[in-house]
Structures are given as structure tokens and as C-alpha cells.
């Protein structure tokens, strides 16, 4: 069952035909086929994507034309933000930021205090969202045990963290 949630942040609108703007709708639990299609198109890992992860994945756009996706792997008080992808035509409109903020709120509501990520291409984007680069060897054991950390992302990936507040 998918849940539809609407972001409440100011100025977060998506344009539709004719320039009409509507509030950005971010929905939970995308179909696995949708998530895999978006991730593979962006050359992001899908090998370890399991059905039980999908309730912690979020997407924007319609079911037949999603514009972006972000996912979380929850690990108690820590989580791995993974799989952020925004379609080329939707970039530069704040969709990536909105998806990440939505994922952060979801994680914080579930007791996550430290949100980690690995990236080969988006370090500057995540720095603007207050993620800090940290030494990969400083990763907590829960993160080191994830497939993404252990084998799917190259050793050259930048490792980053953001401390979450419970009231995001």
C-alpha cells in the first residue's frame, strides 16, 4: 500500500502543462519496477534493493512518469541515504532538495540521528544540504555492513554524514 504525502515547504511547486503550478506531491513506497528503472537509468545500484526497503523510498511525479526518487536504508539510530535520482528535465527546480528533506524527516521520525551517504558525483549538492565529508574508515559498523558501503559503491566514493534533529 502506497501512502501519498504532500510536502509543506514553501515554494515547492512543480509546473504542469501551461505553466500551472501545483504543490509538489512526494509519495512513499514506489513500485519496485519503477525504482529499478530510475536507478538503472542513472547507473545507481539496484542489486541489493529488497521489497522491505521500499516503504522508505519516496518519489515525485506520476506513476507512469516519475521525476525523482530517493531511498533510505534504516539501521536503528543510523541510516544510509541512497539512490537519489532526479530526471534530467526536472533538475535545477529543487526536486532533489525536496526529496532529500522528505527522507530526512522520515528518518528523524523513526529515531535516526545520523544519516550517511556515499556519492561519486554529488558532493557539492549534499554540502549545500549540510552534509559533511568524513573519512570512510570512520563509518559505523551498521553502515559498513550494508551492501552499498561494502561492495556496490567504489572505494573512491565520498562518504558524508548529517546529524538529524528529532524535530525536522
Structure description:
- By secondary structure, this protein is of the alpha+beta class.
- The protein is built from 5 helices and 10 strands.
- It starts with a strand and ends in a 5-residue tail after the last strand.
Fill in the keyword field for this structure.
10 strands, 168 residues, 5 helices, Aminopeptidase
Give me the CATH architecture, please: 3-Layer(aba) Sandwich
Topology as H/E string?
A: EEEEHEEEHEHEHHE
| Portion in strands | 25-35%
The total tally of domains equals 1
Mean pLDDT reading = 87
Radius of gyration: 15 Å
List the helices and strands and how they pair.
Layout: E1 4-6, E2 13-16, E3 20-23, E4 25-28, H1 32-41, E5 57-61, E6 66-75, E7 78-86, H2 95-109, E8 114-119, H3 123-128, E9 132-133, H4 141-144, H5 147-152, E10 158-163
Parallel strand pairs: 7-8
Antiparallel strand pairs: 1-4, 2-3, 4-5, 5-6, 6-7, 8-10, 9-10
Amino acid at each position: 500500500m502506497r501512502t501519498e504525502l504532500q510536502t509543506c515547504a514553501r515554494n515547492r511547486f512543480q509546473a504542469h502543462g501551461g505553466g500551472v503550478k501545483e504543490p509538489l506531491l512526494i509519495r512513499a513506497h514506489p513500485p519496485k519496477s519503477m525504482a529499478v528503472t530510475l536507478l538503472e537509468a542513472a547507473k545507481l545500484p539496484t542489486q541489493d534493493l529488497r521489497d522491505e526497503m521500499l516503504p522508505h523510498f519516496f518519489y515525485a511525479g506520476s506513476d507512469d512518469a516519475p521525476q525523482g526518487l530517493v531511498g533510505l536504508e534504516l539501521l536503528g539510530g543510523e541510516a544510509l541515504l541512497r539512490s537519489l535520482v532526479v530526471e534530467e528535465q526536472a533538475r535545477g527546480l529543487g526536486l532533489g532538495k525536496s526529496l532529500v528533506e522528505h527522507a530526512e524527516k522520515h528518518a528523524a521520525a523513526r529515531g535516526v540521528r545520523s544519516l550517511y551517504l556515499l556519492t561519486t558525483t554529488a558532493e557539492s549538492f549534499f554540502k549545500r544540504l549540510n552534509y559533511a565529508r568524513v573519512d570512510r574508515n570512520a563509518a559505523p559498523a551498521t553502515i559498513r555492513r550494508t551492501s552499498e558501503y561494502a561492495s556496490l559503491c567504489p572505494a573512491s566514493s565520498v562518504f558524508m554524514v548529517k546529524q538529524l534533529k528529532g524535530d525536522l
